[in-house]
Specification:
Elements (H helix, E strand, L loop, with lengths): L2 H9 L3 H14 L4 H13 L3 H14 L4 H13 L3 H14 L4 H13 L3 H14 L4 H13 L4 H9 L3 H22 L7
Length: 192
């Protein structure tokens, strides 16, 4: 069974058919991570979190480079509010790929949900060292400084930073707003 048939079964909510296809695939090749990954997806869609965790753990054991399995496993942890388990998995990912921006952003979000704002700040600042033009991360950092860390000066600096494409966009918008003000002050042709 190819992933496309399983995807169709999932879309049509034919979970028994999808599970049967994947279990047949696992029976033929139990050492291949893809089957366990697909089984984890099926369980996750049905909100069968313990079963999803078990299948995704098996997929990761078989292929620790299968990043979609980590993503789904983290989704299962988050849905159950198993934040420490999610952070432990993210640490595994970040040991292998310290420049994984998605993992750092997710780590920051989990720390925020746990009320660990200083750890969240550290993760966001790591993202900015990797992607200094990320306005979304700059905004998140500014919010964190202002709302949770009581560092208004840093919040202002983080919010005020503009570079690259953001600066071009700001200049274009500012120009249009300035010119629109003059355009609105002119009479319309029908009033002449």
């Amino acid at each position: 069974a190819g992933p496309s048939l399983v995807d169709l079964d999932i879309q049509e909510k034919k979970f028994a058919d999808a599970t049967a296809r994947v279990q047949a695939q696992i029976a033929k090749a139990p050492e291949v991570a893809d089957g366990h990954y697909l089984l984890g997806r099926i369980h996750l869609v049905q909100k069968h979190y313990p079963e999803a965790e078990a299948a995704l753990d098996k997929a990761i054991q078989l292929d620790d480079g299968l990043s979609p399995a980590y993503d789904l496993l983290l989704s299962a942890y988050m849905a159950q509010q198993k934040f420490p388990a999610a952070l432990a998995r993210l640490e595994e990912v970040l040991k292998k790929a310290p420049a994984n921006v998605a993992a750092l952003i997710l780590q920051s979000g989990i720390h925020q949900r746990m009320g660990e704002y200083e750890k969240s700040r550290v993760a966001l600042e790591q993202v900015l060292t990797l992607r200094p033009d990320s306005t979304a991360v700059q905004n998140d950092l500014a919010y964190l400084y202002a709302e949770h860390l009581g560092q208004l000066e840093k919040a202002f600096r983080a919010a005020a930073e503009r570079s690259g494409e953001v600066e071009k966009l700001h200049a274009a918008v500012y120009w249009r707003v300035t010119n629109a003000r003059f355009g609105l002050a002119r009479d319309f042709p029908d009033r002449l």
